[in-house]
Write a structure and sequence with these properties.
The structure holds two protein chains of two kinds. By secondary structure, chain A is of the alpha/beta class. Chain A is built from twelve helices and eleven strands. The two termini of chain B are about 35 Å apart. Classes of the chains: A alpha/beta, B alpha/beta. At the A-B interface, strand 3, helix 4, helix 5 and helix 6 of A face helix 3, strand 9 and helix 4 of B.
Chain lengths: ~290, ~270
């Protein structure tokens, strides 16, 4: 079995108006090469579901996002994502703003085929006020009411992992795999980019096998994109490129996204992008963050 | 004996008391001062506390803040990635201390967006993050580096991210007492929500601060009892522990101009 595809082929399988989940967390292990490929594409009217970082900012700035289902958008050391902020303050986005845990429950409900999962989370807050579609239900066992967190069904999930084989066995050896497994399980199709393509006997190692968080049957296609998470981190290969994010943030104030995009994305291949940064070796030399 | 200490160190010590009687819970302090506060409590009064490395591992001893030497050994206890954090949150064994942008008279807080139009906010911030879940699941405390009326707002928060003691928002079948908001540590005082009907109550004043100043800088009425004490000064032992866990003195950069813990003279700065 061979599921290898190029980033262009993967993005060509996406359609306008789709609901797309993006793995990673803030500035960590985002499938940024695939995001750049979407920025270069004609795709539009997307509903994006994620624990957001520059993926959200770039897609908003490129006019790709109709609706955002999210709990936060942040670059961590730059707390507020500049392009997301701009899009919100211009009143451009439809939102479903929910708690981080509610987002997880929505993905789990979709993964498990449940219409909803009951939770207390959101009660007493504006999460219910600003999402009038969120229903509250009575408990059949006591007198309390519960939020019925609906399934967040994804047409596609995009994630970046450190190692994968051509059958779609994917390894995340970073300290945290975040919610990537739930994004994949909640999606009809999952597109995975990987830093290193390995032969299947790589997973003979119990340690490597222990770091595989979903079954290959859930992986639709694999793309070999070394450094594909840049400027976000991908342990064990590279840390967060804070310097690049400072430049990105500065572009938001001077020149806007078109300045950033013209410099790094528009009309450029991933290889040309990396050459602007000093090549893959320079990306791999970015140290991991100490918290 | 007079030991010199900074306002940041005073706030760390005051904030650490929030965790002292928690027993075996996950203490999460977001930001340098709350994190050092949890660290201090775990190192002194409450060794049973649990903390993470702020990434994915639960620690038996807190990590120092900032760069660490190559031979540093992190005292891992178990994996505690984000999905497991939620398992912990919902099992209620946690106490989080965060710094919201707005706090209202009900103890509701906001880190999402500012302005009256939610669809087109004046200032977009982070989003609700984990506040809805934290606030209804376990104990929460607040850290406020600059006490003023923009933080302690006169009306309800622009976006209510966390459940508080607002009777009108109380979910069906719930009691207000099920909400557990603990301490509020600011640059001028310590407060809690133990006034009448869970009103914000003044607990102690930092050295050199008056009751009037606190009232003036808070956008809603607070409960003040007679003879409000002064916030306890850090002990030498506490200062040594703080220095051990913050060897690069990152705490000195948390408050503007790193003011001393004891004010030279009472200066009232209007918000």
């Amino acid at each position: 079995m061979n599921k290898l595809k190029t980033a262009t082929e993967m993005v060509a399988e996406l359609r306008d108006g789709m609901t797309i989940g993006i793995g990673g967390w803030g500035p960590r292990r985002k499938p940024m090469a695939l995001i750049r490929e979407i920025v270069r594409s004609d795709l539009k009217d997307l509903t994006i579901v994620c624990y957001g970082g520059a993926d959200v900012g770039m897609l908003c700035a490129a006019g790709k996002v109709k609706k955002l289902i999210f709990a936060f958008v942040s670059l961590d050391f730059i707390p507020l994502e500049p392009f997301f902020r701009k899009a919100r303050e211009q009143g451009e986005l439809e939102l479903m703003e929910i708690d981080e845990g509610m987002l997880l429950l929505g993905l789990r409900a979709a993964a498990w085929g449940c219409p909803f999962i009951p939770t207390q989370v959101g009660l007493g807050t504006d999460v219910l006020k600003h999402n009038p579609d969120l229903k509250v239900v009575d408990s059949p066992y006591d007198d309390k009411e519960w939020v019925a967190m609906p399934a967040i069904k994804l047409d596609a999930a995009l994630v970046h992992v450190d190692h994968a084989d051509e059958r779609g066995v994917c390894q995340i050896s970073a300290p945290d795999h975040h919610m990537d497994d739930w994004f994949v399980r909640a999606a009809k199709k999952s597109y995975v980019s990987c830093d290193e393509l390995v032969t299947s006997d790589h997973f003979n190692s119990p340690e490597a096998a222990r770091q595989v968080f979903w079954e290959r049957s859930l992986t639709t296609a694999v793309c070999h994109l070394p450094g594909g998470a840049h400027p976000t981190s991908c342990a064990p290969f590279n840390g967060i490129d804070n310097k690049h994010f400072l430049h990105y943030n500065k572009c938001a104030k001077e020149g806007g996204f078109s300045a950033y995009s013209d410099e790094f994305i528009n009309g450029k291949t991933e290889q040309e992008y990396q050459e602007l940064l000093g090549g893959l070796a320079a990306i791999r030399a970015i140290p991991q963050t100490t918290y | 004996m007079t030991t010199q200490y900074s306002l940041a160190e005073l706030m760390i010590c005051a904030a650490s008391t929030a965790f002292d009687n928690d027993g075996e819970v996950l203490a999460t302090g977001i930001g340098v001062i709350p994190r050092l506060a949890a660290t201090l409590s775990m190192s002194t009064k409450n060794p049973d506390l649990m903390m993470t490395d702020s990434e994915a591992y639960l620690l038996s001893e807190p990590n120092p803040i900032g760069p660490r030497s190559d031979d540093f050994v992190q005292r891992n206890e178990t994996w505690m990635g984000f999905s497991r954090i939620f398992d912990n949150v919902w099992s209620r064994k946690r106490h989080a201390m965060i710094g919201p942008t707005q706090i209202d008279q009900f103890g509701q807080s906001n880190i999402s967006a500012l302005g009256s139009d939610y669809d087109k906010p004046k200032i977009q911030m982070l989003g609700v993050r984990g506040l809805p879940g934290n606030s209804i699941s376990h104990a929460n405390s607040f850290f406020v580096p600059s006490h003023n009326k923009r933080v302690f707002v006169a009306n309800e928060c622009d976006v209510v991210c966390s459940i508080g003691y607002n009777p009108e928002r109380l979910p069906k079948g719930y009691q207000l007492d099920e909400v557990d908001i603990r301490l509020v540590i600011t640059d001028i005082c310590v407060m809690d929500w133990q006034g009448p009907n869970h009103q914000l109550r003044l607990v102690s004043l930092h050295p050199g601060v008056s009751v009037d100043e606190v009232i003036e800088k808070t956008g809603f009425a607070i409960h003040v009892e007679d003879n409000t004490p002064t916030t306890a000064a850090p002990t030498d032992e506490q200062l040594a522990i703080i220095a051990k866990f913050d060897p690069h003195n990152i705490r000195a950069k948390q408050l503007k101009d790193n003011p001393p813990g004891v004010r030279a003279a009472a200066v009232t700065e209007d918000s």
